[in-house]
Amino acid sequence: MFSKNIIKPFGLAVAGLLASTHLTTAAYADCEPDPYIGSICMTAASFCPTQYFTLGPVQYVQISQQQALFSLLGDTYGGDLRTNFGLPATEGRVLRSEGSPPGLVAVDQGMIFGSTHVYMTESSMPTHTHTATYAPFGASGPGLQVSTEDGTKKIPAPGDYMAVSNLNGTQSKSFIAAGNADPTVNISGGYISDLPPEQPIEISDTGGDGAIPISPPQLGMRYCIAYDGIYPPRT
Question: Whose CA is closest to 38, among 88, 81, 94?
Fold first, then answer.
């Protein structure tokens, strides 16, 4: 027989080993071996462990094969509810708690909402203004470019400049061809009559019409749902 002095250290060693094993297992087990049925866990592994279905796109499970899970999920995630029921479709979605928090969208369990991109329309844009400046005479205001050379033409042609009046008998030549007009000066302070009536200024379009991505930076992981384990008690 073992002496008490031998048994006591041996028992402590076994207890310590069991405690150490339990803590190590718990530390590494997000998807635990005896989960509550219907609970969801996340893993970085390429597969879900035994007792778990891999979640992703829409998928349906036979009621006859998973009656316990069906009793918990019911029609929340789809299915015909006669032969099959749906599992949560997590593909491309971030899971969020149900509820109606102030200032946020009210969410019911199983509700699918949200979008990865959004299109801005004229009605959805905030009210704003665009500033446009109409300067038909340039930045210096009303003015007229004239030549400082003597005029060579009595009757102007399109593109000619006004020039220094060159009196030749009774014929005053007050115009000069553009090619001979230099140097020129700007005469300001006058005005032009019979301008066209006031008209709106159209600002040309800019930018593209593509959708704006609104998804924050994310990392894809694997979601698993327990179909075998402990039936969750009601509180």
Answer: 88
